[in-house]
């Protein structure tokens, strides 16, 4: 199921035949997106596909409707690629890389060849893909994937952003982040150029794992410490609501999307 815009979704299922090959784990997933308090439209998109074990958050960028077009295309192409490759037995890592390759090519080509007014559009894209007993995490851009095992929260993905490069180089301190002029500049995106390098990591899937995907409308306004506090003090079915509420309370400068998946 592909969903986007102002929407709250929740799905629950027991493991069995399909991407999650376990009869002893239950997966619950919730997602909420909001345009925020200062944007006229929502350029975030997300995907929840229970049958494919595929979950995606994309944050579009580009003038006019470019960002919305790019993020929407990215989630649709992701689903299409998995549907096409899965029956042919392609490996999970190869599938995730193919998602980014195909999405990047088609978004770039649409802007360059079919819709010049969309030139320069692109999108971040972070995803979870379940295969067997593993969770594969893919990322391009500064949307994030976190792993939560009570009481600890870890950022699994690395931001592809100018700010992160400056932090790693020691040119910006943590206490200077709010004042950093280029904090919204990303260094990799899907579709801005025709090719992009995606990060992919694999983690064994275990009961007690919780994964949180979000656009920077959350991570840019709510600290990791606060996200961890919400996760430690909030019932699972209220996490996405609380995270979005906190982002809005902190200014709501951007579209915000939060997808939360719990393995029990």
Summarize the structure.
The chain has 264 residues and is of the alpha+beta class. Helices cover 28% and strands 30% of the residues. The protein has one domain: PPM-type phosphatase domain (Phosphatase 2c, domain 1, 4-Layer Sandwich).
Shape: globular
Secondary-structure element order, as H and E?
Answer: EEEEEHHEEEEHEEHHHE
**Which CATH architecture?**
4-Layer Sandwich
Q: Reading side by side through the largest sheet, how are the strands ordered?
A: 1-4-5-6-7-10
| CATH top level label | Alpha Beta
For the sheet with most strands, the description reads: 6 strands, antiparallel
pLDDT < 50 runs, ≥5 residues:
1-7, 15-20
Number of helices: 6
Question: What does this protein look like?
Answer:
The protein has helices at 66-85, 92-114, 162-168, 216-219, 224-233, 239-249, and strands at residues 2-4, 8-14, 26-34, 44-49, 54-61, 122-131, 134-140, 144-149, 152-155, 199-204, 210-214, 256-263. It is an alpha+beta fold. The protein has a single domain, classed as Phosphatase 2c, domain 1 (4-Layer Sandwich), CATH 3.60.40. The chain has a six-stranded antiparallel sheet with strand order 1-4-5-6-7-10, covered by helices on one side. The chain is globular, with a radius of gyration of 17 Å. 47% of the residues are buried. Residues 1-7 and 15-20 have low confidence and may be disordered.
């Amino acid at each position: 199921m592909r969903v986007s815009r102002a929407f709250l979704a929740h799905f629950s299922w027991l493991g069995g035949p399909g991407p999650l090959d376990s009869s002893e784990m239950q997966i619950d997933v919730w997602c909420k997106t909001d345009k925020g308090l200062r944007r006229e439209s929502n350029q975030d998109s997300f995907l929840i596909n229970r049958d494919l074990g595929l979950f995606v958050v994309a944050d579009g960028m580009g003038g006019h409707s470019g960002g919305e077009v790019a993020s929407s295309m990215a989630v649709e192409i992701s689903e299409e690629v998995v549907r096409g490759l899965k029956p042919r037995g392609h490996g999970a890592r190869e599938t995730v890389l193919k998602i980014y390759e195909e999405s990047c090519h088609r978004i770039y080509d649409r802007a360059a060849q079919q819709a010049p007014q969309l030139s320069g559009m692109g999108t971040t894209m972070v995803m979870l893909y379940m295969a067997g007993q593993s969770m594969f995490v893919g990322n391009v851009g500064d949307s994030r994937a976190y792993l939560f095992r009570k009481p600890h929260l870890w950022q699994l993905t690395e931001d592809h952003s100018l700010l992160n490069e400056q932090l790693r180089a020691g040119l910006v301190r943590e206490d200077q982040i709010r004042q950093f002029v280029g904090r919204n500049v990303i260094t990799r995106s899907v579709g801005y150029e025709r090719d992009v390098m995606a990060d992919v990591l694999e983690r064994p899937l275990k009961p007690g794992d919780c994964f949180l995907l979000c656009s920077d409308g959350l991570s840019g306004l709510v600290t990791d410490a606060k996200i961890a506090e919400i996760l430690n003090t909030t019932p699972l079915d209220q996490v996405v609501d609380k995270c979005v509420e906190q982002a809005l309370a902190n200014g709501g400068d951007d579209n915000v999307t939060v997808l939360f998946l719990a393995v029990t």
